[in-house]
Design a protein that fits this description.
Elements lengths: L1 H36 L5 H4 L3 E9 L2 E8 L15 H20 L1 H5 L9 H23 L7 H19 L5 H37 L5 H26 L4 H4 L4 H23 L5 H17 L9 H5 L4 H11 L25 H6 L1 H10 L13 H17 L1
Antiparallel strand pairs: 1-2
Helix pairs in contact: 1-3, 3-7, 5-6, 5-7, 6-7, 6-10, 7-8, 8-10, 10-11, 15-16
Length: 399
Amino acid sequence: MESYITDWLNLVIRFAHLITGIAWIGASFYFIWLDNHLQTPPDWKKQKGIKGDLWAVHGGGFYEVAKYQLAPPEMPETLHWFKWEAYTTWLTGFMLLSLMFYVGADTYLIDKRVADISQWQAIGLGIGSIVVGVSIYEILVRTKLKDHGMILGLILILLITALSYGLVQVFSARGAYMHVGAVIGTMMAGNVFFGIIPAQKELVNAVKNATAPDPKYGLNAKLRSTHNTYTTLPVIFIMISNHYPMTFNHHMNWLILVAIIFITAAVRQYFVLRHFGKNKPVIMVAAVAFTILLAYLIAPKTKEFSAEQQQQNIDFNRVSQIIQQRCVSCHSVTPTDDVFKLAPAGVSFDSQANIEQWSSRIKARVIDAKDMPFMNKTQMTQDERDYLALWLLKNADSN
């Protein structure tokens, strides 16, 4: 029953995190698009203090949007703020991180093959990495480096690289990736809380008091908004990365993560420039090319067998025995594992037909990525993986 309740909590929190994340990212993308598509308004609008306007059609109606140079002559009765999308995305994200990787630290966060640490040590390192990482960022964006975007960006990239490398030395690969995402996601929510919303409040107060707003707030908000723009796609990738072990379970997983952060940030740059009317397809072509190159470089190497090994007769009973011993505790109609009470992804190996049906996934997860058995919980040996690889090779040849 405990696992059943945990699954429901996981489902509800993950669903809420997804919905609030869509709302936050959607609003962010829309306002960036909107700001970059504003056109010079007619004179009568300029006289009202309007800096730019835009016409759009959507949902069977026309919309007229206007942006003031500073602020309207008087504050409207109803003013919509966009902050709770960011805050609730962070809150649900931290709840999900806590449920999956802190409550379930022994299952998802701790990998004894990487570091033999206790649950509390893992939790402390996880929360500590978020607190320290975000604190360093906050210190940096409050120094004179904020006026030197390229230098600050380079320093942040080096710090993210160091963080990625450091976390894969102590956590499971999944756990390391998720904590890099947690650090970046917390930085993004902090940018809203510490920079963007204070700037908006300063502007509102200036209008109410009929004074000129302090420009430092606007500059701070712009810097933080820019950082959020380029970190959005990397965070989205990290959110879904646990489904793709060919990235996180590679021996150079930290470098792969950094490469994907670069690629996804470049994709975002392409669309930002397009908003300004600057079409730079070379950026997108380069991003696609580097993605293909990355996929090629990290592709699993084909297991080489000697002529003698290839002549070896493969006993399916031995294949079945390995799978029964190492896999069926989870992947069964009636699992016996202490954590997984239902077969993950509905995959079961209770019969020869089931094993053969899922043979391609066995190759991908057991032979290529080696992320199954999960955390190698059942201690599958390399000899057993090699035997399964030889069976899969002969099975493919016979087909």
